[in-house]
């Protein structure tokens, strides 16, 4: 290898290192807060419904904002928490925080959920939006699309029908739904009309 090639490799390595350092410095600056700043605190909403043996996690939500009281080392902060969060340790890693300018649609009130010590809580379903079948190796599983409280329609998840009916029967009691009933329409299979409270939804019909 010639001297010119060695110098070229060294130059490229230095450029890459400088670029990485610039990115890290900018990211570190974005993640730093001052005493008196207000920040949101990240929580982890969970679904109690098991899908294929695993409990599901929903998109993160944030509570707050809370004031920063103290910086603890380079990566942690002490927050002024309200009485309803008194059971939670008040020092948090910077990755658990988000600046006050966060998207309001991702913010919930701490007194509206039962937060555990690890900042997780059980999210509740509010409506069934759709249904489908999932074919596995040796069986077919019926799934329902669930809208969760504090989450948008775009964040709805597919859950096993039987598990949802067992855990949340109230979602199914006030309807004429029967997922086993199918009708033929223009030679195509589709679900029968399903009533939710005072609205009718037709699935599988153009």
Automatic annotation (TrEMBL):
The UniProt transmembrane annotation reads none
Domain (Tf2-1-like SH3-like) spans 36-101
Protein name as it appears in the record: Tf2-1-like SH3-like domain-containing protein
């Amino acid at each position: 290898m010639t001297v010119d090639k060695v110098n070229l490799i060294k130059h490229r390595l230095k450029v890459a290192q400088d670029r990485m350092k610039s990115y890290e410095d900018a990211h570190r600056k974005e993640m730093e807060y001052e005493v008196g700043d207000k920040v949101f605190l990240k929580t982890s909403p969970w679904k109690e419904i098991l899908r294929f043996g695993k409990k599901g996690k929903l998109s993160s939500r944030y509570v707050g904002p809370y004031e920063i009281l103290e910086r603890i080392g380079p990566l942690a902060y002490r927050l002024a928490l309200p009485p309803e969060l008194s059971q939670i340790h008040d020092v948090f890693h910077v990755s658990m925080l988000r600046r006050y300018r966060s998207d309001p649609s991702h913010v919930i009130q701490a007194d509206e959920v039962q937060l555990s010590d690890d900042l997780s809580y059980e999210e509740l379903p509010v409506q069934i939006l759709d249904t489908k079948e999932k074919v596995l190796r040796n069986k077919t599983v019926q799934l329902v699309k669930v809208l969760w409280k504090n989450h948008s329609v775009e964040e709805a998840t597919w859950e096993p029908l039987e598990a949802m009916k067992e855990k949340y029967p109230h979602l199914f009691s006030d309807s004429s739904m029967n997922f086993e009933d199918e009708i033929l329409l223009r030679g195509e299979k589709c679900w029968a009309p399903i009533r939710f409270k005072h609205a009718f939804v037709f699935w599988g019909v153009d």
